[in-house]
Amino acid sequence: MNRIVKFVILDILKNKVVLFYTLILAALSWSVFALEDNSTKGLLTLLNVVLLIVPLVAVIFSTIYLYNSTEFVELLLSQPVKRNRIWLSLFLGLSTSLLLAFFAGAGIPILIYAPPEVSLMMLLMGATISTVFVAIAFLSSVFTRDKAKGIGIAIMLWLFFALLFDGLLLFLLFQFSDYPIEKAVVFISACNPIDLARIMILLHLDVSAMMGYTGAVFKDYFGSSYGIYIVMSILALWVFLPYRISLAKFRKKDL
Amino acid sequence: MKKKFYTLVLLGYAFIANAATLHVGKAQAFLLIKQAIQAAKAGDTVIVHEGHYKEGNIIVDKRITLMGVNYPILDGEKKYEVLSVKANFAIIKGFQIQASGYGSLDDPCGIKVYDSRGVEILENILDDNFFGIYIQYGKECIVKNNRIKAYGVEEQQIGNGIHCWKSDSLLIIGNKIEGHRDGIYFEFVTNSVIWRNRSFDNIRYGLHFMFSNNDAYITNYFKNNGAGVAVMFTKNVKMYNNHFEENWGDAAYGLMLKEISDSYIIGNHFLKNTSGIYMEGTSRILAEKNIFEANGWGMKIQASCLDNEIRANNFIGNTFDVSTNGNTVLNTFNGNYWDKYNGYDLDRDKTGDVPYHPLSVFSVIVEQTPPAMLLFRSFMVDLLDKSEKISPSLTPDNFVDNQPLMHSLSL
């Protein structure tokens, strides 16, 4: 299995897209911190990078890579290798390389410029979001043979989680603002990995506003010491479930 | 004039020459402080040597200097008021006063000053008292360099650190107060100065002001008090060069102003509060050269505020710089530095050429629906904010700084 993972990573590195992604992230992060005189504003820009660009790249690149490696997978399947292993190695290879790219590109400037508690949370969330969206890519690519359709599904999912979801939530908030909907809102936002990541970073970035707001439920849910464990386990589910479903599909898939 | 002065000096010498010094302690002339006070005449000095004195309520009813050597302990045994001062120009210095009684009717204190003038309370340590220092109908009293500590848990169970009531011309200087209900409490106190005090970890307010006109508080440090600092129903207050830090909570404010008028807030530093300043029913206030940094809300200005001027302040790294609860804007913002300002300065006069609208639409939304805070900094909300900045519809369009600074002021 290790050899397949190694092969996938090397293949991706040869591909140069991930290298390019690293460079873009690096250029963006360094310039953002260099241009702004206070690191908070730089962090806000990077927050948008982590919440929008990172998942977009992760989901599209992984989907395309999976489609392009169909023949490779078929070749591997002709060998005595289990399907589980192939799928897992692909997953590990993809997520490892994207994580490396994220850490090398954005991680170093964030660690250097931002205050430690915020930067660590941002890196953790960036890494988790990358992995979640690799898993989502696996799900969207296993459903259809048609590459265009697969990529379409991937982009739609990204669009939904990154943009539409918040719009819907805001709409709900306005519609039901007369009712005690705080708990419901917390629950709904937990259904979106990007929202969860954003809230976790926010709790450190806007600490005075978020932690001071005792009336607000998110402090009770996410701000407590074990809040981070709850969030991390929900996000872990967001990696595990799409991957698991895609694996079940892949096992039975007629290639 | 000169003659008068010499006479005064001579009188002073005569006075000192007549003054006796009485010693209290185990191997001294007096065993009990009460005896010494009884024996003393006006102008005498009573020196109390090291020891643990449990004498119940000690009443200072003569113009004497009561001085402790090496902080003798006066213990109220949780039953009595420890020291009651009922004489003009008495001086209390260098004691450790602890464990005053608890009472909800008569407010037993560490040191209480009744109807007196020119009393000085200097360099005492007050530990675990119900009220720390209480000045009632005092005039020209000085409370200086005391360390006051209590271990209050509930508001109802503990009194204030320095409590001043119906007094005039007080000086509260260099005290350190922690763990009381309010650090410093002023009610009906006029013409007084609060200077260089540190008030932190109090249950309610670091400083609490009510109906106290013509006072100034300068260079104080208020940190992590339950609800910050409250100044209410007062006019002519000068608030200079204070630090308001880390007052966190739904109803906690760095500085809360309620029904204040004709006052000055200059050169203060508001750091990491849930709300830096909260204003309600406030009018004719000048807020100048303050730093608002890393607060949840820099300033919350309710629509009931009128004719306040906010100029030349730095707003740096706040989640929201300002917010309000209505559409009326009767206050002016001018020449502040806002780190969220994206304008340009073509004529190079160091003020931006485009007016800045400091009120973000999202702060208005959060004011109405607090759970919306959950969506803060999401892309959708950023879009909303951007479009609102270009053409204000939900936010009042006269909520504007016409001369936003391009660079922060060095304060």
Short description:
The complex is a heterodimer of chains A (255) and B (411). With 255 residues, chain A is mostly helical. Chain A has helices spanning 2-15, 17-35, 39-68, 70-77, 83-113, 116-143, 147-175, 182-189, 193-205, 207-212, 217-223, 227-252.
Structural write-up:
- The complex is a heterodimer of chains A (255) and B (411).
- By secondary structure, chain A is mainly alpha-helical.
- Chain A has one domain.
- The model of chain A has no long low-confidence stretch (mean pLDDT 87).
- Helices cover 86% and strands 0% of the residues of chain A.
- Chain B has 411 residues and is mainly beta.
- Chain B has four helices and 38 strands.
- The longest helix of chain B has 17 residues, at 2-18.
- Chain B is elongated and about 85 Å long.
Keywords:
heterodimer, B: 411 residues, mainly beta, 25-stranded parallel β-sheet, 13-stranded parallel β-sheet, 4 helices, elongated
The CATH topology of the domain at 43-325 in chain B turns out to be Pectate Lyase C-like
Q: What spatial form of chain A do the alpha-carbon principal axes imply? A: globular
Oligomeric form of this entry?
heterodimer
Total strands of chain B: the figure is 38
Structural class of chain A: mainly alpha
In angstroms, what is the radius of gyration of chain B?
26 Å
The count of DSSP E runs of length 2 or more, i.e. the number of strands of chain A, is 0
Order of helices and strands of chain A: HHHHHHHHHHHH
Beta-strand proportion of chain A: under 5%
Q: Roughly what is the average pLDDT of chain A, rounded to an integer?
A: 87
Report the top-level CATH class of the domain at 43-325 in chain B: Mainly Beta
Secondary structure elements and pairings:
The complex is a heterodimer of chains A (255) and B (411).
Chain A: H1 2-15, H2 17-35, H3 39-68, H4 70-77, H5 83-113, H6 116-143, H7 147-175, H8 182-189, H9 193-205, H10 207-212, H11 217-223, H12 227-252
Helix pairs in contact in A: 1-5, 2-3, 2-5, 3-5, 3-6, 3-7, 3-9, 5-6, 5-12, 6-7, 6-9, 6-12, 9-12, 11-12
Chain B: H1 2-18, E1 21-24, H2 33-39, E2 45-48, E3 52-53, E4 58-60, E5 65-68, E6 73-75, E7 83-85, E8 91-93, E9 96-98, E10 109-114, E11 120-122, E12 125-127, E13 131-136, E14 142-144, E15 147-149, E16 162-168, E17 171-173, E18 176-178, E19 184-190, E20 193-195, E21 198-200, E22 207-210, E23 215-218, E24 221-223, E25 228-235, E26 237-240, E27 243-245, E28 253-266, E29 269-271, E30 275-280, E31 283-288, E32 291-293, E33 297-301, E34 309-311, E35 314-316, E36 320-323, E37 332-334, E38 337-338, H3 361-368, H4 379-390
Parallel strand pairs in B: 1-2, 2-5, 3-6, 4-7, 5-8, 6-9, 7-10, 8-11, 9-12, 10-13, 11-14, 12-15, 13-16, 14-17, 15-18, 16-19, 17-20, 18-21, 19-22, 20-23, 21-24, 22-25, 23-26, 24-27, 25-28, 26-28, 27-29, 28-30, 28-31, 29-32, 30-33, 31-34, 32-35, 33-36, 34-37, 35-38
